[in-house]
């Protein structure tokens, strides 16, 4: 999480607004990303970190589908810094 925070901090520069896009298979769940996913420790930590940088997770459908379950673990976080100009 510390390394992930350093990466976000290094690219989130209010003096140089741009579009930030972070994608990946996070293997973390948060009910605010997909309503029927249970919150996991990792999801809460990632959610807190990304929201502190005004990043928004935009996927709300299942991305990991198994025969008896599904979850949203492939995530896309964005910030549109154009609103900050």
Please write out the topology.
Blueprint: H1 2-11, E1 19-25, H2 41-52, E2 56-57, E3 64-65, E4 70-71, E5 74-80
Antiparallel strand pairs: 1-5, 2-5, 3-4
Structural features:
single chain; 85 residues; three-stranded antiparallel beta sheet; two-stranded antiparallel sheet; 2 helices
Number of strands: 5
Provide the residue-averaged pLDDT. Answer: 83
Q: Helix tally?
A: 2
Please list the strands of the largest sheet in the order they lie side by side.
1-5-2
Return the string of H and E elements.
Answer: HEHEEEE
**End-to-end gap:** 29 Å
| Helix percent band | 25-40%
Biggest pleated sheet: 3 strands, antiparallel
Gist?
With 85 residues, this protein is of the alpha+beta class. The chain contains two helices and five strands, in the order H-E-H-E-E-E-E. A hairpin with a 4-residue loop joins strand 3 and strand 4.
Task: Please explain how this structure is put together.
There is one protein chain. Helix content is 26%, strand content 24%. With 85 residues, the protein is α+β, with helices and mostly antiparallel strands. It is elongated, with a radius of gyration of 14 Å. The mean pLDDT is 83.
